[in-house]
Amino acid sequence: MNDLKLLLTVAVILTVACSFPTKNENNEKPEETAHPVSLVQTEPSMGEKIYNQFCMVCHMKDGSGVPVLNPPLIKSEWVNGDKDQLIKIVLNGSEGGKYPVNGETYTNAMTPHNFLSDEKIAAVLTFVRSNFENNSDEVTPAEVAAARESNGK
Ligand code: HEC
Questions:
Q1: Which residue has the CA at smallest separation from atom 40 of ligand 1?
Q2: How many structural domains compose the chain?
């Protein structure tokens, strides 16, 4: 008889213990439900958002540019080359004809983007260097700060 009581007690404890997660789920949402993984993965990165806001109008959504006017960012030696120089292109813009890509020159002017923070320039260049068929390493805010310092603006 004592054995049966013990068994019943254990059974009651187990039932109560097992019902806790269910009760919790009803009261407060677990972290995973509040931020579904699928949403995080489809949300554009900061770099992509800045690209869409400031660069896409001239360099196009897929980085292919506009013939004669705006150069492509696809497999460009400027994009994948020296980071200090690349950052300065974004900081200063250009009056045109200065940065040929694959032997073609482009006549439109690029507006300066020195109003963007170090973090934002780093993010957009990291995005450009790892998209549009490019496979180069990231640009850090510290590298942008250093380029801005030697650039004078
Ligand atoms: C108003 C149009 C315009 C906007 C906006 C613009 N660019 Fe440009 N970009 C140009 C033009 C035109 C050139 C070529 C200038 C030259 O050859 O002197 C250029 C050149 C470049 C180059 C070097 C050449 C190449 O294609 O690799 C890079 C890199 C670049 N832009 C990146 C960016 C990024 C990143 C942004 C956004 C932060 C941006 N540009 C915004 C028009 C634009």
A1: 55
A2: 2
Q: Which of the residues in the chain have pLDDT under 70?
A: 1-41, 153
Could you tell me the distance, in angstroms and rounded to a whole number, from the CA of residue 31 to the centre of ligand 1? Answer: 41
Could you tell me the pTM of the whole model?
A: 0.79
Question: Quick one: 84 and 103 in the same domain?
Answer: yes
The set of long-range contacts for 56-64, using a CB threshold of 8 Å and a minimum separation of 24, is 58/108, 58/110, 62/132, 63/128, 63/131, 63/132, 64/132
- In a shared domain, residues 73 and 114: yes
Separation of CA 59 and ligand 1 centre (Å): 7
pLDDT value of position 70: 98
Instruction: Work out the angle at residue 151's Cα, subtended by the Cα atoms of residues 60 and 87, and round it to the nearest 5 degrees.
Output: 30
Q: For ligand 1, which residues put their CB under 6 angstroms from it?
A: 54-55, 57-59, 70-73, 76, 78-79, 86, 89-90, 94, 96-99, 101, 106, 108-111, 113, 124, 128
Domain span at residue 36 reads 2-40
Query: CB of 76 within 8 A of CB of 135?
Result: no
The model's pLDDT over 27-69, given as tens digits with 9 standing for 90+, comes to: 555 555 555 566 556 789 999 999 999 999 999 999 999 999 9
35 and 54 assigned to the same domain: no
